[in-house]
Amino acid sequence: MEPRFYAFDPRPTRRALFLGACVLAVLSAWALADARTLGDPPLAVARAGLTGGLMLAFVFAWHRLRPRPGWGVRLSARGVEMARPFTGTTLQLSWGQIDCVRRLGGKGDVLGLFLEEGGRVLITRHLFASAAVYSELATLLEERKPPPRLDA
C-alpha cells in the first residue's frame, strides 16, 4: 500500500465556531450592560460570565482546529497515523491493533476504528474539507479492515 495523506481542514466548523463566538461576545456585552443599568444584579453578572466563558471556549476550539502542515490522517503499509485535534499529538496504530472499521451515526459521518484491546478511535466528517475526501478515507480503511458481516 502506498502512503496516503488526508489533511484535516475543517473550514465549515471553524466558520461556525467564529460566528458563535461573535454572537456570544454580543450576548456578553448585552448582559454586562444589563448588569450595569440594573445595579449589578447577580443573575445578569452570572449570565455575562457564562456567555463570556462559552465565547472563550469557542475561540479556543476555533484556534486549535486551524489547518497545520502534517495535520491529518496518514495511511501506510505499517498502519494509521492520526493527528489528535486538540492535544497536538499523533496517534500511531498498526494494522494489527485495529480489529475493524465501521461508519457510525445516522449519516455515517463518524468513522470508528475499533481496536483489538477493546477501545475505539473516532474520526469525524467535520474535520475534512469535503465529503469526498472523508468518503475516500473511509472506503480505503473499510477495504483494509472490513466491518463484521453479521453484526447483531
Walk me through the structure.
- With 152 residues, the chain is an alpha+beta fold.
- It is built from 3 helices and 7 strands, in the order E-H-H-E-E-E-E-E-E-H.
- 42% of the residues lie in helices and 24% in strands.
- The model has no long low-confidence stretch (mean pLDDT 87).
Number of beta-strand segments = 7
The number of helical segments is: 3
Mean pLDDT: 87
**How would a textbook summarize the main sheet?**
4 strands, antiparallel
Give the helix level as a range of percent. Answer: 40-55%
In angstroms, what is the radius of gyration? 21 Å
Spatial separation of the terminal alpha carbons: 32 Å
Which structural class do the helices and strands define? alpha+beta
Shape, please? elongated
| Percent of residues in beta strands | 15-25%
Low-confidence stretches: none
Q: Which strand order do you get reading across the main beta sheet?
A: 1-2-3-4
Q: Please trace the helix and strand order, writing H or E for each element.
A: EHHEEEEEEH
Task: Summarize the model shown.
With 152 residues, this protein is of the alpha+beta class.
Search tags:
152 residues, alpha+beta, four-stranded antiparallel β-sheet, three-stranded antiparallel β-sheet, elongated
Task: Chart the SSEs and their pairings.
Elements: E1 4-7, H1 11-37, H2 42-64, E2 72-75, E3 79-83, E4 90-94, E5 98-104, E6 110-115, E7 120-124, H3 131-144
